[in-house]
Design brief:
With 123 residues, the chain is mainly alpha-helical.
């Protein structure tokens, strides 16, 4: 596989990572707002959705190499997504009004597990 072909495989995942990075880099300037279940559900559903999509895009790129077993493809996609989730939460610690939490990495991981289930059912 040529470098150009690999780049084309990874480009959608990289673009999606940039989108996640941009969204999580938006400052929050309302620290005094009271807790809202609706807001919480909306934000956590966002985590689940964006990381399910990321998992699928990484899975697509990894699975085209042809060298891995399905188990290794699933695990590689999950580990790469988890590493990105951790770095994204760390990135948020530098953004005004945001914090990086392991709880959010947990929601990201649940999203990737949903992506894994969806991907498995399609194959």
């Amino acid at each position: 596989m040529t470098l150009k072909e690999r780049f084309k495989l990874w480009l959608p995942a990289m673009i999606w990572m940039v989108i996640i990075f941009f969204i999580s880099g938006q400052p929050i300037n309302n620290p005094g707002v009271a807790f809202s279940w609706l807001d919480f559900i909306f934000k956590k559903t966002g985590h689940l959705t964006e990381y399910a999509i990321l998992y699928g895009l990484i899975f697509r790129a990894v699975s085209q190499k042809g060298k891995f077993t399905y188990k290794k493809i699933f695990m590689t996609a999950f580990v790469l997504g988890l590493i990105y989730a951790l770095t994204d939460e760390w990135h948020q610690t530098f953004v005004t009004g945001r914090e990086g939490t392991l709880r959010d990495v947990g929601f990201d991981s649940l999203g990737m597990l949903a992506g894994l289930i969806i991907t498995r059912n399609w194959l």
